[in-house]
Amino acid sequence: MGVLNVTPDSFSDGGQFVSIDSAVERARQMQREGADLLDIGGESTRPGAVPVSEDEESRRVLPVITRIAAEVGLPISLDTTKARVARAGIAAGAAILNDISAGTMDREMLAVAAEREIPIALMHLPVPPAQMGWSQAAALKEEASDTDVIETVVAFLRERVAAARTAGIALENIMIDPGFGFGKSVPQNLELLRRLSEIKRRLGGLPLLLGTSRKSTIARLLGPARDAEDPQRVAGTAATIALGIAQGADIVRVHDVGFMARVARISDAITR
Question: What was the pLDDT predicted at 17?
Answer without folding.
Answer: 58
